[in-house]
Every structure is written in structure tokens, then in C-alpha cells.
Amino acid sequence: MLRYMLNRTLNSLFVLLAIITITFLLMHAIPGGPFTGEKNIPAAVLKNIEERYRLNDPLWKQYGDYLANLIRFDLGPSFKYEGRTVNDIIRESFPVSFQLGMVSIGLATLLGIPAGALAALRQNRWQDYSTMFLATLGVSVPSFVLATLLIYIFAVKLGLLPAAMWDGAEYVILPALSLAGHPMAFIARLTRSSMLEVLAQDYIKTARAKGLPPITILFRHALKNALLPVVTYIGPMSAAILTGSFVIETIFAIPGLGRHFVTSIYNRDYTVILGITIFYSVLIIGLNLVVDLIYPLLNPRIKMNENQEG
Amino acid sequence: MQLNSDSFQPLQQNSPIASIALANTTYRQDAWRRLKKNKLAMLGLYTVLFIIVVAVVGPWLSGLSYSDQDLNETNRPPSADHWFGTDNLGRDLFIRVLYGARISLSIGIVASFINLTIGVIYGGIAGSFGGRVDRIMMNIVDILYGIPVLLYVILLMVILMPGLTNIFIALGISYWLGMARIVRGQILSLKEQEYVLAARTIGANKWRILFYHLIPNSLGPIIITMTLAIPEAIFTEAFLSFIGLGVAAPMASWGVLASEGVASLRSYPFQLFFPAMAISITMLAFNFLGDGLRDALDPRVRR
């Protein structure tokens, strides 16, 4: 067990290092420096700027410095905004994205799991068909389409909810719904198929034969086991919600990390792109690691060595 | 009941015995029969075919091109002349959506081609060679798998500069991992089967076994994965174009059209409506088809 955990952790760290290296090299492979696009900079000034950001050092030294700073959680200065560091940007905007993401994850699980369970319990009846139709729709409709649809209906036509900005509880609803759509549909489908599998098991028959109340069977025996695959979806789901927030935050003009990422792409602000990518990767890889470590505890049937085979 | 000698007729030698058994159905016929019974999947299939035909033929039939402007006809609502209306430069939206279908479908085709070539061969080699080769190859896949794909496609687009060819490249680098994993898993279980042993005893080498026995027998999961990879690729393109990293200006991909539509959502909602519908219907069709294929090709998970 301990060896497995150690193995997984080391593996994650290795993946992280690989990501940092690849991203770093990619950002430096872009032809021309970050300041070559600026108009009318005298050569001497350009040289000073490049000196200040240490762009004249050899690549391996820049890489070493970057890693050394990274260990101290210092992601460096922004190229575009004078005097702002990448850390500042993340510190300001991540809480916003975090709130939005949490509400979305909550919505996705709290609505997705019951919907999937209902579909499985009423298999091949109208409840099943309608839920699964909606779920396929939810998987198919891109988040930005859903977002604009919601804005059009609830903000433009009905005027019930604000269409943009970030200024209180009612501002969360529409973006969170549009962000949660895809994961919610996916969770519903996942819950349904795994629930169907569990319901066909012998221990469910035994529980029924013992005369246990259906509610107990549903929650204690069926749902508890059916939710195991859903746990593994937490990692990919958080990734989907993070990347989804790029577009959603841009559409709703929410001052979160996703919008900063998109803006930094427009601005070609390479340190910010690099920093936010690394930040996201740490988050996602960390979450995946946590899920991997928890999973064997939740599901003792899995042997460690089997798990590694994937 | 009277019996006499006429009731009994000698059977001629080698005459066909009345067919008691049903005609043999191959795996493929069986899957096709199951697919045909699934109405949603067939709807998806017909929709996909329809979109392909319209995307290929549609633009030829119309005199207009995606970049033709008519500044006297800007922001017109849908009418007999302009079925989907016009945009702020007076370009016909119907034509632009049709050209968008071409882009999206070519993205889908390229993505599935990449899936097929790189993914299948990579997974196939890892699975059939096993041992250290397998471990190293799959470790590489695991590392790449840990990276959120969209994040990487975005980074690649930043470096490569927006454009259709570069979307192909970015998708090519990132969209074969899932396929490689699935094919490898499939081959690991298939390679213990008797027919592989039989082939080995006749002296077939590893490559022959891989390409003539193992891969053809994993065709089911391969097709399913491919069908589900296509909408993902189409979505990625729409997403990239939407945030401005997709195809360049006068070209009209669905993502570009949608993001232009969002800009004028309040005054001209139809400009968003049609591209959004096009994306959603295409994705829906592919997803229905993919789900149906899964049920049809993999009878073990039948409902």
C-alpha cells in the first residue's frame, strides 16, 4: 500500500516536471522575443528590457532560474502589466474561479447522480429515455452555446438574472449552470450504467430477499457501490470545469483565472501563460493523485498492482 | 392417419437438407442488424450522412461564397433570399454555416485519421510486443494523458499561430492517446486467444499477427472510439475558434460564427442561433451514432 502511494506520488511529480519543461520550452520556442512586437522601441531600450527580464541568459540558465523560483512558489513577473507578478494575478483571480468551479461541481454531482440513478431504476421506461436524451444533449451542446442560450432566455428575454459581471450570489447562477452542463450529463450517464451493473448483482437480490426496505437497498447497497466509478471522474471533471471556465468567464466577463488565461493568450504575455498553465496542471494532477490514493480505500476489491496496470 | 409406401421417399444422396438452422450471420451483419433496430443511432447516422452531403454539395449550388459581402444587406433576419439571414458585413449566414460544416467535418476526418494511424499502431505495438516495450510506451502515454488536452492544444495554438493547418497539427499531437490505450487493452486480452496461438504455430511473425489478426479483431472498440473522437475534435475546433485561436478571419468555422454571433446576441440573436444549432446537431448526431455503435458492436453491455 505504502509502496503504491509512493509510486503514484513520484509518478505525478515526474509528470509535473515534464509539463513544466515542455511548457517552458514551448514558450521559448516562439520566434521573436515577447517585446519584438512592440512599436518603436529603440534597440538600447529593448536590450535593457531584455536584460531586466534576463532574456539574454542562455536557455538552460533561464530554465534553472525558473525552476528555482518555482520551488519558492514564485512564478515571475508579467511581461505585459508593469509591476504585476503572475502570483498577484493568480491570488486575485483564482478565488473567483474557485467559487464558480465549486458551485458547478456541486450542481453537476447533486443533479447528475440522482438523474442517473433514476434512469437506472426506471430502465427502459420514459424516465430513463427522457433523462438519457437530456444527458446526450448535455454532452453534445458546447458550453458556450449553452451559456449564450441561458443568457438570452434568462437575462435578455426574461430579465430575471444578470447577464454578466461578478457581484453577488445571483451572478453565479447562469455561469455555474453553463459550466456544469457537460459534467452533469456525463455523471448522469456514468451513474446510470454503473447503477445498472450493480443492480444486477447477487447481493442486491439477497438484500431484496431479506425483505429490506427499498430505500435502504437503494442507498446502502446499490448507490454506494455504483458511485465508485463516479469518484474516478472527479479528476477529468475538474479539468473540464477549469478549461470550460476559459470560455464561460470570458462570456460572462467574470474576473477569474480563466479569463486572465485567455487575455494573456491575446496579449502574448508568455510568463502569465506559462504560470497559469503550471498552476492548472498542479491542480489537476494533484486532484488526480488524491483520487488515485483514495480510490483503493473506497474500493478494497482493487489490488494495488492491478490498479497500476490501468 | 394412413401411411403407405408413398409417404416415404428415399432421400437422394447429397441433397440439401431442409434448412432448420437460420442463415449464418457474421459478426458484422449481426452488429448492423442491432444498429438498425436502434432508432436514435440510425437518426444519428442519417444526420451525419446528410451533413456530409450538404457540406460537400451545398456550396457548389450557391453562387455566393463565404466571403461575399453585400453592404446593402447587413444584419438581415432570415428570409427567402438569405435562409439564415446575413451578418454585419452582409455575408449570407447559410453559406457561411455550410462552409463551416466543411471545416468541422474535415477536422473530424483528420482527427479520426490520426486516431486510426498513430493511436491504433502505437497501442497495437505496445500490446502485442509486451514487456519492456509496452511499459515504456505506456508510461509515455500515461505522462501525456496527465496533461489536460485542451490546455495543450491552446498552448500549441499560441505557438503555431491560428490557422486550419495548425489546428490539424495540434490535434495530431494530442488526440491519439485514448485510442492507443484502448487498442492496447484489447490486444492484451486478444493475444491469449487460440487463433493467435494457431497463427504463431504456422510461423506467422509478430507483425503479421498484429495487422492480420489482432487489429482486425479489435475493430469494434476502434470504431466506437473513433466515432466518439470525432465530436470531441469538432468541439475543440469550435472552442479554439471561439476564443480566437482557430481559423483566420474571412474563413467561417462554426466556432468563429458562434463567437461573432455572441457579439450581436442582443440585437440579432439569429446570428448565434444557426451556427449554435449546427454545432449542437452535429455533435448530437455523432454521439447518438457512437452510443448506438457501442451497443451494437459490444453485445456484452447491451441494455
What fold name stands as the CATH topology of chain B? MetI-like fold
Count of beta strands of chain B: 0
Major sheet characteristics of chain B: none
Instruction: Tell me the helix content of chain A.
Output: over 70%
Based on secondary structure, the structural category of chain A is mainly alpha
Distance between the ends of chain B: 49 Å
What would the average pLDDT of chain A be, to the nearest integer? Answer: 81
Beta-strand proportion of chain B: under 5%
Q: Which geometry of chain A do the CA atoms define?
A: flat
Order of helices and strands of chain A: HHHHHHHHHHHHHH
What do you see in this structure?
The complex is a heterodimer of chains A (310) and B (303). Chain A is an all-alpha fold and 310 residues long. Chain A is built from 14 helices and no strands. In chain A, α4 packs across α11 (234-251) and α6 packs across α7 (173-199). The longest helix of chain A has 36 residues, at 86-121. Chain A is flat, with a radius of gyration of 24 Å. By secondary structure, chain B is mainly alpha-helical. Chain B is built from twelve helices and no strands. Chain B has helices at residues 27-37, 39-61, 93-129, 131-145, 149-160, 164-174, 177-190, 194-202, 206-217, 219-242, 254-263, 270-297. In chain B, α3 (93-129) packs parallel to α6. Chain B is flat, with a radius of gyration of 26 Å. The model of chain B has no long low-confidence stretch (mean pLDDT 79). The interface between A and B is large, with 47 and 41 residues.
